[in-house]
């Protein structure tokens, strides 16, 4: 976990903007502060500006406006090779004409580190990623996962305090990816390095990070720890982007502190928690996680609004059941239930009634 | 291992197949496919159909390449050693010269002159003697006119005999009596019956005449068949060549015809008597040749014929390395005739310079192109390829206008005051001009492979290197450049091979110090018509290219060549 | 360009063959004529090809500008067994070689060619210019020198030896990149009389002597390969004096108004004419013979001189030479054969060069390369 007692920022973006063509801003007014030792993930769809931010931090792109500071020093004018930031690339970028050892030795050589020192460090780095036996091989002779480990070792071998990773696991298959996710977080925390990690895979972001910055349209939509991000999305983009989500559109009818009543488009009323809506009559989109929908009448709170639903499809997924419903005209409404011995299996065609805790139903901004 | 898989071929050496089989043998037995046949066999059956289809697809190209490329190359290789013309045109002379010692400075025996008389006479009738003259003229100056003159003068020898025989009996100058004497009666009947349509009945000698008059029969048969096939005339109506009369004289002198009772026996016996008579005028072949041209009494021409009489010769190859075939064996040419060694050297040296200047000029451009956005890169690529859109001659001539002493560059330099008006730079009609113009022309061949290799180098390598702390130069030299080497290699091979074969540009802007070996090849192809020498030079060039290719493979590795991603 | 020409030639052939079968009167309907391109080919087109086609409806002629490589190409065609040319314009030396190689057809000049208007037989009318049994002469041209009138001061050169006089006429000079003519001029300017030139050149010492003379100006020479080079070099002021064909100089001087003067001293006459390739099929041969008879008659050869300053090969044509077709100037004074121009001349020595070409050329090229 980040050292929260220590408040001086290690990485800092202040009002950073970036434009490639002078017409469109790719990054709009970015503000971000990272303490030392944090594992922060930049998550977002492609074109959201997350990679540009990473490249600005690495020094391969210059900010059009604003300051980027590393350990209190502005680094806008420092060339990449003097920033001392380790970086792992999506395609690993291992130099194909060098052996694994030469690849690892490269950053040490350019730092004019003595030969015996170099060899010791390379060996240590290889051992760290459990690739000690592969020093004499060429990158092309290694599997994707092995190359990824080497890339990681190379980014760490010169002991940088900050390591950037640009979708490093994107080319790996699912199983390997999960294994590497664990290894990378483990290593980062063990070494105490600060990591900025870019991905478009939300699972990766949630499982690895101390904090996640969700990017869209050149802005950070929400910056929060994974649990908060999942459970308390601040706007409909984040809600939509992180995890699976049911949405219903309607209008605010009543506002009552942290509760509100929403009239759906078909006239039904539901209870919700207002997040970024404030006025009666405002359009809203409510979002409910599939696993928070309840159809067992006994478990529903007294007095809350319920909705009628028709079961369209039942899908057995092993650990969970996934049931597709038609609710208030939306036939993509999904509920997920745990595969427990007493769990009900809903038959397609059944008419049921569903409801939820008002705090699980978040009334968010309506899409334009 | 059952015999089944070893059956298709029984080569026992280390072939890849055998290696596979050896591997198989180590196992318990062949792996079987579902239907029980050995897996390898059913696999190869399945693959055979694929191979046949692939072969059918490439067949048009294969045939095209074979016909238009491989065949001419073999034709060229063959021409560089082929020398049948001497033996075919002078068959008797070559045989007669067999025991002639070409290293002695003596004339050959009289029999050689006699053989040469028959050969040259027949060659002259076939109009082949001048061709042989041109061929021998490559080796012995003067042969061309010697043979042309001899073709005209050789008739004189036989005329001496013809006149005397004719004086004896007019029938010796008539077609019909000759034909009756020499020809098979059946053939004469058939020839008489021939109505002018279709092919003439082929001339046949009469039985026994070859034994009686061997030389006469041989030459008459050549005459008669030549008349039939080449001239389309009936031997019954054409009086024979004078060479036949000469042959008759020699036969009569050597043999005895008194027992002869066939057709025209009286004519023949009378002629025999005439030949034996003291007043009969004869010709000594050697003197007759001297009369035609006294060069025939110079042993050199005989030595040349003897040296070049075999069907195959190393002469062209010796010529192309500034040596010559002499009766004593290969010898270096006079210093003032040596040129090919110099030109080969110069061609290789200048091609190397051109290749290096292409690398120097092309590398930054290719680098720039590969780092630009696709659209811009494509646009600039068109500029790079622009030279291809104009004809080679126009481009080369444009360089002439640019580089000549009264040309654009000199004018600008004079105007800027950088050179004096009377000290204008000589930049064309020398090696410099050739290098400039050829670098320009070949540059695209360097840029294209370099570009296509560079554009496959992901930018992340450079970024990775920089993030690892490398300066721009270190990044370039240690990371980018090694990966662009395959492009440089491919471009260099292309440019180098193209430039050693170039001749138009050196011809126009090379002056005398900038011409290449290919210019001499072109000269021998189109001007001197010494195709054998041109073929030998071309073969050497081909070998040089192959050797360099091999050397490149050994030093850099041929898998380090990429023409594209 | 080459391809389209080949296509044209091929299609011309097809048409020719088809036409022959259809017409059936023994003469092909098309001819492929080979010439040098440029002004010379144009003069042929104007003087006799166009009039012939006009007289013979339905006959077509295709040009192939391959005369410079005619010998090599004919040899290649002959080996391939497919002669696509009907009539080939070549210099006399090439005609002799083609005849020697059996690639050109021997002709009976009196039978094939028209007599002069006064009845003189063709062989007498052409006289000595029939240098080979295969050769049908058309024109006499010469290789001679032109000089820049504005670069020679007040003393324009009058002798060919000005070429070797770099003190009086400093600057570059252009010479053809072959020994022929250059060796002769070198010897003449080294003091050898014209009668002795070839006797001297036959010997090794003579060849060395000629090369030694050329050596004195070697650094000042631009060597040319194409006839158009020297006029261009003169026009650009690159050279002060240079050799080329007299017709090229005529058009540079009279048609393009360049400041160039003619130097006729020791011009080398050469001949250009037709040869008929050996082995033509009968219908094509008949057409070509018909055309050649027309194209080489007295009037036609005289007409050609309206377009180019080369002398007609027939003696009987000379009095008929008139004025230039466009410039209107009298052509006779521009002819290399004009008595005023022809005081010192020599004729290309075909026999000598047939023998010595290979040998002297090897030495010459080796000398050049050094």
TrEMBL record, chain A:
<dbReference type="InterPro" id="IPR013611">
    <property type="entry name" value="Transp-assoc_OB_typ2"/>
</dbReference>
<keyword id="KW-1003">Cell membrane</keyword>
<keyword id="KW-0067">ATP-binding</keyword>
<dbReference type="Pfam" id="PF00005">
    <property type="entry name" value="ABC_tran"/>
</dbReference>
<keyword id="KW-0547">Nucleotide-binding</keyword>
<dbReference type="GO" id="GO:0005524">
    <property type="term" value="F:ATP binding"/>
</dbReference>
<dbReference type="InterPro" id="IPR008995">
    <property type="entry name" value="Mo/tungstate-bd_C_term_dom"/>
</dbReference>
<comment type="similarity">
    <text>Belongs to the ABC transporter superfamily. Spermidine/putrescine importer (TC 3.A.1.11.1) family.</text>
</comment>
<keyword id="KW-0813">Transport</keyword>
<dbReference type="InterPro" id="IPR003593">
    <property type="entry name" value="AAA+_ATPase"/>
</dbReference>
<dbReference type="InterPro" id="IPR005893">
    <property type="entry name" value="PotA-like"/>
</dbReference>
<protein>
    <recommendedName>
        <fullName>Spermidine/putrescine import ATP-binding protein PotA</fullName>
        <ecNumber>7.6.2.11</ecNumber>
    </recommendedName>
</protein>
<comment type="function">
    <text>Part of the ABC transporter complex PotABCD involved in spermidine/putrescine import. Responsible for energy coupling to the transport system.</text>
</comment>
<dbReference type="InterPro" id="IPR003439">
    <property type="entry name" value="ABC_transporter-like_ATP-bd"/>
</dbReference>
<feature type="domain" description="ABC transporter">
    <location>
        <begin position="11"/>
        <end position="242"/>
    </location>
</feature>
TrEMBL record, chain B:
<keyword id="KW-0813">Transport</keyword>
<keyword id="KW-0472">Membrane</keyword>
<feature type="transmembrane region" description="Helical">
    <location>
        <begin position="432"/>
        <end position="453"/>
    </location>
</feature>
<feature type="transmembrane region" description="Helical">
    <location>
        <begin position="376"/>
        <end position="394"/>
    </location>
</feature>
<feature type="transmembrane region" description="Helical">
    <location>
        <begin position="348"/>
        <end position="369"/>
    </location>
</feature>
<protein>
    <submittedName>
        <fullName>Putative spermidine/putrescine transport system permease protein</fullName>
    </submittedName>
</protein>
<keyword id="KW-1133">Transmembrane helix</keyword>
<dbReference type="InterPro" id="IPR000515">
    <property type="entry name" value="MetI-like"/>
</dbReference>
<keyword id="KW-1003">Cell membrane</keyword>
<feature type="domain" description="ABC transmembrane type-1">
    <location>
        <begin position="344"/>
        <end position="552"/>
    </location>
</feature>
<feature type="region of interest" description="Disordered">
    <location>
        <begin position="1"/>
        <end position="27"/>
    </location>
</feature>
<comment type="similarity">
    <text>Belongs to the binding-protein-dependent transport system permease family. CysTW subfamily.</text>
</comment>
<feature type="transmembrane region" description="Helical">
    <location>
        <begin position="54"/>
        <end position="74"/>
    </location>
</feature>
<dbReference type="GO" id="GO:0055085">
    <property type="term" value="P:transmembrane transport"/>
</dbReference>
<keyword id="KW-0812">Transmembrane</keyword>
Automatic annotation (TrEMBL), chain C:
<feature type="signal peptide">
    <location>
        <begin position="1"/>
        <end position="22"/>
    </location>
</feature>
<dbReference type="Pfam" id="PF13416">
    <property type="entry name" value="SBP_bac_8"/>
</dbReference>
<protein>
    <submittedName>
        <fullName>Putative spermidine/putrescine transport system substrate-binding protein</fullName>
    </submittedName>
</protein>
<keyword id="KW-0732">Signal</keyword>
<dbReference type="InterPro" id="IPR006059">
    <property type="entry name" value="SBP"/>
</dbReference>
